[in-house]
């Protein structure tokens, strides 16, 4: 019985450890730096996102009616911004398994709080709720959007 209790205790401890916050990691990835600057630092309105995107080489921007999309010259970095609703930065696939941790570190700094170790995560910026996601399917997509 003691072995079972010990095993159960370690299992619960491991599960709880995953729910906690993570220590910050340096934001070294250019795409995470772009997301931090374009999306996190211009939230909650994203009104300045287009201007900041130009600083990251995004010069081709098109108003699609529902959102503004833009690309850098070689199409390796793109943005999609729906003012006061969502901001997305995408890139080609990266060989870096720390990208999600970098995203969460940048979010924690900008939100002035700790964040869980996994995405999606709900954070508050300037008193407004946002959901952050990192999708690695077919490339890297860093998403910040207001919940419906």
Question: In a few lines, what is going on in this structure?
Answer:
With 148 residues, this protein is an alpha+beta fold. Helix content is 32%, strand content 28%.
Please provide a written account of the structure:
This protein is of the alpha+beta class and 148 residues long. It has one domain (22-145). 32% of the residues lie in helices and 28% in strands. The chain has a seven-stranded antiparallel sheet with strand order 1-2-3-4-7-6-5, covered by helices on one side. The relative contact order is 0.18.
What form results from the Cα inertia axes? globular
Q: What percent of residues are in strands?
A: 25-35%
| Cα end-to-end separation | 48 Å
Largest sheet: 7 strands, antiparallel
Overall average pLDDT: 87
Number of strands: 7
Helix content: 25-40%
Strand order of the largest sheet: 1-2-3-4-7-6-5
* Distinct helical segment count: 4
Uncertain regions: pLDDT < 50 for 5+ in a row?
1-19
Summed up, the domain count is 1
Order of helices and strands: HHHEEEEHEEE
Structural class: alpha+beta
Whole-number radius of gyration? Answer: 18 Å
Characteristic terms for this protein:
148 residues, alpha+beta, 7-stranded antiparallel sheet, 4 helices, 7 strands, globular
């Amino acid at each position: 019985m003691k072995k079972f209790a010990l095993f159960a205790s370690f299992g619960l401890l491991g599960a709880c450890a995953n729910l906690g916050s993570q220590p910050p990691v340096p934001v070294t990835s250019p795409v995470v730096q772009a997301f931090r600057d374009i999306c996190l630092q211009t939230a909650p309105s994203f009104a300045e996102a287009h201007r900041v995107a130009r600083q990251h080489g995004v010069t081709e921007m098109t108003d699609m009616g529902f959102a503004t999309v833009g690309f850098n010259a070689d199409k390796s970095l793109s943005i999609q911004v729906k003012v006061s609703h969502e901001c997305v930065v995408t890139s080609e696939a990266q060989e870096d398994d720390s990208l999600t941790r970098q995203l969460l570190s940048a979010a924690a700094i900008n939100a002035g709080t700790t964040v869980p170790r996994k995405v999606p995560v709900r954070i508050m910026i300037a008193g407004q709720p946002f959901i952050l996601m990192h999708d690695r399917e077919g490339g890297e997509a860093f998403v910040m959007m207001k919940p419906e």
